[in-house]
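Feature request disguised as a bug: please show the residue count (266) next to NECAP PHear domain-containing protein in the output. Example input:
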Amino acid sequence: MAEPEGYESVLCVKPEVHVYRVPPRASNRGYRAAEWQLDQPAWSGRMRITARGDTAYIKLEDKNSGELFAQAPVEQFPSIAVESVTDSSRYFVIRIEDGNGRRAFIGVGFVDRGDAFDFNVALQDHFKWVKQQGELAKQARNPDQGPKLDLGFKEGETIKLSIANMKKKEGSSGGRPRLAGSGGASLIPPPPGSKAPLFPLPGGQAPPPLAGPQAGTAEAADPSMPWPPQPPVSTGEEALDIWGDFAKASGSFSSQAQQNSGWVQF
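Example output, currently without the count:
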């Protein structure tokens, strides 16, 4: 069987391996290495595992010349091409093929258990890579068949939002009193000449109006008396009179006192 063309990579190399003749299996219970005459191997050499495309090849070669003794192509793992024995972890049964299509089963054993572990892991890693490449190629051919993320609501499904600091106690103002025109309590200006408070009364009530003259009194009968009473208009003499105390005080200083105090009269 001719090898397919393409790049060949090396997966694992073990310098020492033994080959045994495997007796025909009488039942389906599996192979047992104890039945192989382990002290008399049929051949000894090195093992080299290579990969070309999706297929791995187990090659048994001469240690010195590198001449090929046998080759076992592996297209799947685990499969009938490579089987473990039931009584040891260092021995396997592989299916070899020649160029004429003939097949045979032989036993392969490793001296060290670590070599047997590497042999098993090399085949597992290769076919894991083959599986990943197949999935990527399938997605590239059919990009619309991949899994899609569904973010829509199902039938009867609801969502609940919890937002903090949205509720306030009933009756709480929660702010400062606002001026007139801003929706708060209005400030009523007092009438001229009054001393009414400029701040609103409790509850937003306006201050009571000033009491007018009672009926039957002289103030009520005299039309010349305006209500509310207006502040008196000051004349020039009254305006100057407010400085009278200062004028009197300036004349009470004696000349001797002015000289002693350092004041200079202009």
